[in-house]
Amino acid sequence: MYLAIVTRPDIAHAVQQLCHHLDCYGPIHWDATKRVIQYLKGTRKLKLVLGGNHPAQLLGFTDSDFANCPDT
């Protein structure tokens, strides 16, 4: 579960559903587990690159009048 949530959130739901059947799994659950592993094998070289060739810039906005609320 740690790996699914922290390093690969795209499989978190599938792993969570498979964890429900740890004590009474069947052929369907084993096939689903193999499918998750095949997905991981096929996507192991994919990654996100922040900024790419350009340096990352932080940009933020704020609502300085608190949504035009007269009380705050």
The number of E-state strands comes to 0
Please state the overall shape, judged from the principal axes of the Cα atoms. Answer: elongated
What string, H for helix and E for strand, traces the elements in order? HHH
Q: Which percent bin holds the helix content?
A: 40-55%
Give average pLDDT, whole number. 83
Number of helices: 3
Terminal residue distance: 43 Å
Range of strand content: under 5%
State the major sheet: none
Low-confidence stretches: none
Characterise the protein shown here.
It is a single chain. This protein is 42% helix and 0% strand. With 72 residues, it is mainly alpha-helical. The chain has a domain at 1-45. It has 3 helices and no strands. It has helices at residues 2-7, 12-19, 27-42. It is elongated and about 60 Å long.
What is the fold's blueprint, element by element?
Layout: H1 2-7, H2 12-19, H3 27-42
